[in-house]
Amino acid sequence: MTFKPEFINRIDETVYFLPLSKETQREIARKMLDELMVHVSESNFKLIYDEKIVDFVLDSAYAPEFGARPLKRFIQKSLETYIAEEIIKGNIDSRITYRLTVVNNELSISPFA
Fold first, then answer.
1. Which of 17, 63, 66, 110 is least enclosed by beta carbons within 10 angstroms?
2. Strands across the sheet with 97-103, in order?
């Protein structure tokens, strides 16, 4: 009753989406983290992540009913902010490769040997 008939007539069918499984969201999180690593490398910083980060993202943002949007928001809000703060503080040297991980449920960046 709130849409104009012209709009209603353009709707041909209803498409139902199944919730994304945790394993599917794990793969999506890895892809998003890979993209973040590329973005960081474009600023001449070398950063890798380990599986603990993937688990941390899923534990913090997994919501099957909302798809991958919460994962993206969490990565932007938490990980990107953390990395940016570490760069601004001067804790990351562009000549060294660092590993992003989780220690005691907290984000941590340390030189990768």
1. 17
2. 46-49, 97-103, 106-111
- Cα–Cα dist 73/16, whole Å: 24
Rounded to whole angstroms, the Cα distance separating 55 from 30 reads 10
Read off φ and ψ for residue 40, nearest 5 degrees.
-65, -40
Q: Which residues share a beta bridge with 100?
A: 49, 109
What is the C-alpha end-to-end distance of the chain, expressed in Å? 63
What is the model's pTM?
A: 0.83
> What is the share, in percent, of the chain residues with pLDDT greater than 70?
99
Tell me, what's the pLDDT at 100?
Answer: 97
The CATH classification of domain 20-111, taken from the options 3.30.300.130, 1.10.8.60, 2.60.40.3450, 1.10.287.3510: 1.10.8.60
3-state DSSP call for residue 47?
A: strand
- Based on its alpha-carbon atoms, the radius of gyration of the chain, rounded to whole angstroms, reads 19
The interaxial angle of helices 51-61 and 22-41, nearest 10 deg, is 120
What is the pLDDT at residue 13? 82
